Amino acid sequence: MRLAPVPATILFASAGVAALVAERILPLAVLAAVLLAVCLRAPTRQKGPYVLGALLAGLGVFLISPLVAQVGYDVLWEGGPRIPVIGRLDITTEELADAALNGLRLTAVGLAFAAYALRVDHDRLLAAVGFAPRSALAVALATRLVPTLERDAAGLAEAMRGRGVPIAGARGYARLLSPLVAGSLERGMNLAEAMEARGFGGGRRTHAPGPTWTAADRLALTASALLLMAGVLWL
Amino acid sequence: MALGRVDGLTFSYPGAKAPAVADVSFTLEPGDVVALLGPSGSGKSTVLRALAGLVPHFHGGRFAGRVEICGADTRRTRPAELAGRVATVFQDPEDQVVMARAANEVAFGPENLGVAPGQIWPRVDAALAAVDATHLRDRLTTELSGGELQRICLAAALALEPELLLLDEPTSQLDPAAAERFLSVVERLGATVVLCEQRVERALEIATRVLYVEGGRLLLDAPAAEAEEWLRGNRPRYAPGGEPEALPQRPVGEPVVRLTDVSFAYRPGVPVLDGVDLTISRGEIVALEGENGSGKTTLAKVAAGLLEAQAGGIEQRGRAGYLLQDPGRYLVAETALAEAALAVGGDEAPARAALAAVDLTRLADRHPRDLSSGERERLGVAAVAVAEPDLLVLDEPTRGLDPDRKTALSDWLVEYAAAGRGVIVATHDRRLPAHRRIRLGGEVLVAA
Fold first, then answer.
1. Which of A6, A84, B298, B322 is the most exposed place for a label (fewest CB within 10 A)?
2. To the nearest whole number, what is the mean pLDDT of chain B?
């Protein structure tokens, strides 16, 4: 099932907001699991970093926050070292519950963003916004810039290794910064030329029509409203 | 009536001492498929840019003469206004993609032209179908291979429904089979086409006319059959000919690298190399051939030690050097000399010798990014070869090289190997000399 960009964005944003305001672990876990499934089914190879980033951030909060929090009376473990400002390290049941809630919350919010990044057609979303078309185009180009820079940086490092020139430490990588920027500027000039040759800036633009909203899109909007209400009232 | 008319075109880029093209005149008739041939830096791309109006509007410089396309004088008509009648596919697809998804990329041009919204998707679908890229419609452009991206760029040009299609080395990233498919699509279009191409034979197969440019001057404007005769007599390296014979076998030296039962996969369960055995000896040039995605680059990188095999044994004797595809992108120093000296700890003597070997001595003090694309490619070769690695691995080194430069590179490779070093060349180009040719098929190496 593929949603139109606007309903999909609203749905994922609602899921993120619901995750932020939810106060119970089980509904949050269900929400995170559903978002994880949505991300994993994305037809792209780039899902790994997004999904891993969201899961690791949540796991980090779950592991660290009980150690640094000072909440609750039901002590499960004590006797850790005394840390300045924080006091003696210990773990209570309440701290674990809070850590699980916050970890899940962060994971769910991260996954909602990942779902937006992986499943929404950003070109069409920006076109659907309908105003500031040049700014929208700048955003579209910036979106492409990150993976392109990544690829160029990897290529530069590999080219150096291929010549037997070691790239190590901050100084070694700093040497690649200037050619990376120069390469981007050169690419920008070539792109500007190609855009002009394809009629950009020649007159009034039109937009290809976005996909017609289906029952699934309307359902997504309804689900968005319900998610927000549920988040505020019950979760 | 002629579709295009170029009359006495002379153009110099800003700051250039000599004109890039001088006194060039020709006409384009509807339905012509024109092969625009000539050495690197001879002015071919400038002629294409003049036909698109990008010269002088985008580049500035000094312009004389007259270029008229579909009745519009390019001095008074901006490139964006010509876009509905003229479409250009540039050399590097990476540098012309704007949108994140393939279909949106193809729609970008018609949207710029103000095509009625209801007609845009039908145009997009027709253009994608024309280049056999319907299956790429919803893919992210950042995830497409160079060949796939090149087809999307052609579809983006076709979606403009141009009367004149300008193609600047459009098959540079394609394997021979894909290049043939691409050019047969171009042949079927029925539009007037001007095609710059270094793979001369393929261009001549579909061309109805040939223009040959050298030193900025048009030396030949003739129908294809007549042009072939002229090329044979005057520029034989540009004339169609058979594949070169294999190099005579030399006494085999000691191995510089031995791969035994090597396997490699980028993703679990999808092997690119599976149980590969390969030995490269001193004095030997081995060509790795195969379609895009067949694993040539992967095998070359494993042999050079840039990728670590997941199974099998690799025995390396001596140093390996590796030249990436498109090395002109990966230059880091402030001068050509400093670039060549990087791999020898800044020692200028071997760097100057390496520059001389690729005919770049006079450009030693120039910034690498001020060099032409062909000069950058040669600087890339010098920057790797300067350290005289025992095993030299080159990935598609002839991409974008004209036939003269290709011959020079071939001669240099033969000399390099004859000095007792091993050479691996991953290439689509069967004109490069080799003692052995190993074909990789599908995703797994076919027995050598």
1. A84
2. 89
